[in-house]
Design brief:
By secondary structure, the protein is of the alpha+beta class. The protein is built from 15 helices and 16 strands. The structure holds histidyl-adenosine monophosphate.
């Protein structure tokens, strides 16, 4: 018996017609991003492990539990990228892009890898389209990035979503908040879930993000981070919200939105949809003003987001349909394959989608034409070969006729 192989657990094939929907979504994303001055960047799929540990945070779930890390043959520890922000920031520093006029804006699309427990909307290989803007610290930049996300979602046809916004402060005010949280949770520390007991020691802000019901209860009256912001962070946050109002973008202030990656400063945001199950966040982002410096570059404010393609496409799956074939060419007899290939080439050069019969009886070829949902069938037999004509059938209107081969394309334009 020959071996049969399946895709790895948590790794999925994207088949037609979904793949067509994905392509359309990626095209729409790049059109919106280009219109806002973003250019595409392509970064490697693997980086040194340290890059992610330093930026996302040693104690984050991603770094502590979910990374695809391995030693290469030169005994270097490398990791399949779990996200795109750290690699793009690494590229920005490595190529000295800070000497170019700010802001420098990049978008990307591609696979990311996290060793998570697979379930609906959560894969081990998943895909993101994302943007990163370097060198703009003004709150307008945060608003522009959120506006871009909303424009993309609108173009994609997503109407039903909630945009949560928060500020998690900066190095000045976050330690104050952290201390307030430690004091708040101290009396109930032992009642927290084991993960949150670890978070209490390492990064108490993440307790605010926990989904375990008892932790949700315990944090009901926890202090809000937005009450601990320093004057600069508060002004930045209020300005971002004001600009979102100016742009007519609806949002929900969510002081619990702390995000699971360590590099964020000030603004964080997330888009959620009730159309998705437990994994309802389909896009997320924020500001990360310290990351470029952390990677050895100059102090550079930055902001961006990423959309999870599986979750986005999952919300739009009803829109996935194979594109209709414009024409199907059935042929039979000596010399007809050549004529069919030439006719197909001519029609395709004019932008038509054309399928060929590839042998068999005329009847079986025409059955295939129906199955392909083609609008027109062209038929070439030895008679047509001699006369330079082709027979045509309109498979939707149920009409038929004959036309000189060179005019076949005109029929498709009707
Ligand atoms: P993130 O929240 O970790 O942020 O991921 C962004 C989106 O990727 C999520 O909202 C979700 O839709 C999708 N996603 C994450 N993990 C999975 C998974 N296992 N399966 C399916 N989809 C998933 C980031 O990655 C940041 N780099 C975003 C960012 C860009 N912040 C600033 N710039």
């Amino acid at each position: 018996m020959r071996a049969r192989y399946n895709a790895l657990k948590g790794f999925e094939d994207i088949l037609p017609p979904s793949s067509g929907l994905w392509k359309e979504l990626e095209d729409k994303a790049s059109r919106v991003f280009l219109s806002c001055g973003y250019n595409e960047i392509r970064v490697p799929i693997a980086e040194s492990t340290d890059l992610f540990a330093r930026s996302i945070g040693e104690t984050s779930d991603i770094v502590s539990k979910e990374m695809y890390t391995f030693m290469d043959k030169g005994c270097r520890s490398m990791t399949l990228r779990p996200e795109g922000t750290a690699p793009v920031a690494r590229a920005y520093v490595e190529h000295n892009l800070s000497i170019l006029p700010p802001p420098q804006k990049f978008y990307y699309a591609g696979p990311m890898f996290r060793y998570e427990r697979p379930q609906k909307g959560r894969q081990r290989q998943f895909h993101q389209v994302g943007v990163e803007c370097f060198g703009a610290g003004a709150p307008e930049a945060d608003a522009e990035v959120i506006y871009m996300l909303c424009r993309f979602l609108e173009a994609a046809g997503v109407r039903d979503f909630r945009l949560d916004v928060n500020s998690i402060g900066d190095d000045k005010c976050r330690p104050v908040f952290r201390q307030r949280l430690v004091e708040f949770f101290a009396p109930v520390k032992n009642e927290l879930c084991p993960d949150c007991q670890r978070r209490y020691e390492q990064n108490p802000l993440r307790i605010l993000d926990c989904k375990v019901p008892r932790c949700v209860e315990l944090r009901a009256n926890a202090p809000a981070i937005t009450d601990s912001l320093c004057d600069e962070c508060r002004a930045h946050y209020e300005n971002v919200l004001g600009f979102l109002d100016t742009l007519g973008i609806k949002y929900n202030k969510n002081p619990l939105l702390v995000r699971g990656l360590d590099y964020y400063t000030r603004t964080t945001f997330e888009a959620r949809s009730s159309l998705l199950g437990a994994q309802d966040a389909f896009a997320a982002g924020g500001r990360y003003d310290g990351l470029v410096e952390e990677f050895g570059g100059p102090s550079t404010p930055a902001v961006g987001f990423a959309v999870g393609m599986e979750r986005l496409a999952g919300m739009l799956e009803g829109n996935a349909a194979l594109p209709v074939m414009d024409a199907f060419i059935a042929y039979i007899g000596n010399g007809t394959p050549q004529r069919a290939l030439k006719l197909a080439a001519g029609l395709r050069e004019n932008g038509c989608r054309v399928e060929l019969g590839f042998g068999g009886s005329l009847k079986s070829q025409l059955r295939k034409a129906d199955k392909h949902g083609a609008r027109f069938a062209f038929i070439i037999g030895e008679e047509e070969l001699a006369s330079g004509m082709v027979k045509w059938k309109d498979l939707k209107q149920h009409t038929s006729g004959e036309t000189p081969e060179r005019d076949a394309g005109l029929l498709l334009k009707t």
